[in-house]
Amino acid sequence: MSSSVQRKRIRKSPEARRAEIVDTAAAVALAEGLECLTLRRIAEELAVRPGLISHYFPSVEDLVAEAFGTAAGAELEVLLPAGAVGDASTPPGDAPTPTGRLARFFARTSGEAYDAISRLWINARHLSRYRPLLRDRVAEQEAAWRGRLEDVIREGAECGEFRTEDPYVTAIQILVVLDGLGAHANTEDRGRPEAVTRMAVTTAERELGLPRGALTDGA
Q1: Torsion-angle region of residue 122: left (phi > 0), alpha (psi -120 to 50) or beta?
Q2: 16, 58, 66, 165: which could join 12 in a potential S-S bond, CB 3.0 to 4.6 Å?
Q3: φ and ψ at residue 191, rounded to 5 degrees
Q4: Spatial distance between the Cα atoms of 173 and 150, rounded to a whole number of angstroms
Q5: Alpha carbons within 13 A on the beta-carbon side of 11
Q6: Nearest to 154 by CA among 141, 143, 174, 168
Q7: What pLDDT, on the 0 to 100 scale, is given for residue 89?
């Protein structure tokens, strides 16, 4: 009598399967670009039939938009986590200050991981000219990033840490400089003068009425 026990095949829920497809597509997009996303490619990555992918995403354009949104949204949660200031679940005195949040934000906007998301943004903005679904998702993510940064700046202004007449405008100014620097993610950036590499920080410190180094020293 055989002692082996036949294992039951675990069937994933539709929600779990869809999330797996999107996460895989987002990883491929970050590593290789949105143009590399095809239903067949993702099916190969997951070792499933292409028909399974098309069941959840009848059009590859839907998958491209979803993959970008997922990758960009996940990066935002790393750079500026939601609810870090004023979160009721955070013990009193443990919540990071707006200045601390911005300092950590800028500290994380460098290195290979940030270069990868910068390349994805470049890629998405270029392709969005021809792909309406992707264009809508790019606009949605731009608004999310702008809103999250504006919230931190506004809270800092309200508690007296920052001085700015318009948190919305200041958020846009900072993001424009970051985007400008990120546009060079595909090129060699070693040897850039410090004045160039810290342009976004310099802009933030100037526009928020902070002394030089306030967003870098001790970050």
Answers
A1: alpha
A2: 16
A3: 85, 5
A4: 11
A5: 2
A6: 168
A7: 47
- The three-state DSSP-derived secondary structure of 53-90 is HHHHCCCHHHHHHHHHHHHHHHHHHHHCCCCCCCCCCC
Q: What is the pTM of this model?
A: 0.83
Measured N-to-C along each axis, helices 167-182 and 199-207 cross at an angle, to the nearest 10 degrees, of 170
Residue 108 tokens read as 């994380």
Task: Give 171-196 as a DSSP string.
Answer: HHHHHHHHHHHHTTTTS--TT--HHH
Report the sign of the C-alpha dihedral through residues 129, 133, 134, 140, in that order: positive
Apex CA 137: angle with CA 133 and CA 138, to 5°?
115
Give me 44's structure tokens: 């190969």
Place of tokens 């160039």: 196
Helix (H) or strand (E) holding 160, with range, is none
Task: Give tens-digit pLDDT for 46-87.
Answer: 999 999 999 999 999 999 999 999 999 999 999 999 875 444
Q: Answer whether 76's CB lies under 8 Å from 106's CB.
A: no
Residue 86 near residue 64, CB atoms below 8 Å? no
